[in-house]
Design a protein that fits this description.
Radius of gyration: 27 Å
Number of helices: 8
Strand content: under 5%
Distance between the termini: 33 Å
Number of domains: 1
Shape: rod-shaped
Helix content: over 70%
Largest sheet: none
């Protein structure tokens, strides 16, 4: 299933930069409002505004923890899916030795090509739909060729402890690919990111508003806090994009199959 969500299709750096700018603008707007009305408010109202801001920060921390945990779980699942598929292909490679000649060497060669295609697909951004579709068709074609060889081999040797073992391993390989593709499609839902951004912007307005109610403005701590928030959001977004950005899934277990 292709993802056509607006935020998911944008680079992580662009989304983080947009949040940083929006929070600073929101802070400035809040400061001007607070500075404009501060002489008309008593101390009780100012304390209430501070309490509301504390509550929003608490909500923000809860939502951040929830979103970070969600993106981290998806990253771990993708890493495990790579290892699981590599193990399944590795087993199939070893069991090609159980096939009768000439299907043992031919099938081994096809599986090596299969690994190369899967590695190539692992480096394709999920938003490059045409290239992904082409690689999926190539993978399907190789799967069919390998399966056809297995069927021909079973005509020569139908014993379950020889050809049957390879067919079982190939079934696991196909299942592992499907599971990995399904896991790749799972990411943090866009409404959660939009809610996160909305709360951040509202928090920026309130921070600026509280600064405007005071006699002096402390701008540097506000910028530092905004920067730290944006860095955390950047990590969350980057974790959620498995084939782009700074944080990527390691393919070592698949690469090792090419040198077997």
């Amino acid at each position: 299933m292709d993802s056509r969500e607006f935020m998911y299709d944008q680079p992580s750096v662009l989304l983080a930069l947009a949040l940083f700018v929006l929070m600073l603008l929101a802070n400035e707007v809040g400061y001007r409002i607070g500075h404009h009305v501060k002489d008309r408010l008593n101390e009780d109202i100012k304390k209430q505004a501070g309490s509301i801001h504390t509550g929003i920060l608490g909500l923000l921390g809860l939502l951040l923890a929830f979103t970070f945990n969600m993106s981290m779980q998806r990253y771990d699942n993708r890493s495990y899916a790579v290892i699981k598929e590599a193990n399944a292909i590795g087993t199939a490679l070893l069991r090609t030795q159980l096939l009768p000649s000439p299907y043992d060497s031919v099938t081994y060669s096809l599986l090596q090509q299969y690994v190369a295609i899967r590695l190539k697909a692992s480096n394709v951004d999920l938003t490059r739909f045409d290239e992904r579709h082409r690689l999926n068709k190539e993978t399907d074609s190789l799967q069919h060729a390998i399966w056809r060889n297995a069927m021909l081999a079973s005509d020569l040797d139908a014993r379950p402890v020889t050809t049957g073992y390879f067919i079982a391993a190939m079934n696991e390989t196909i299942d592992a690919r499907g599971e990995r593709n399904a896991i790749l499609e799972r990411h943090v839902p866009e409404p959660i990111l939009l809610l996160l951004y909305s709360i951040f912007i509202a928090s920026g307005v309130l921070m600026g508003y509280l600064s405007g109610l005071g006699t002096k403005r402390s701008y540097v701590p506000t910028v530092i806090m905004t920067l730290l928030i944006v860095l955390l959001v950047f990590i969350i977004i980057d974790l959620d994009r498995p084939r782009r950005g700074l944080i990527k899934i390691r393919q070592d277990s698949m690469v090792e199959l090419l040198v077997q």
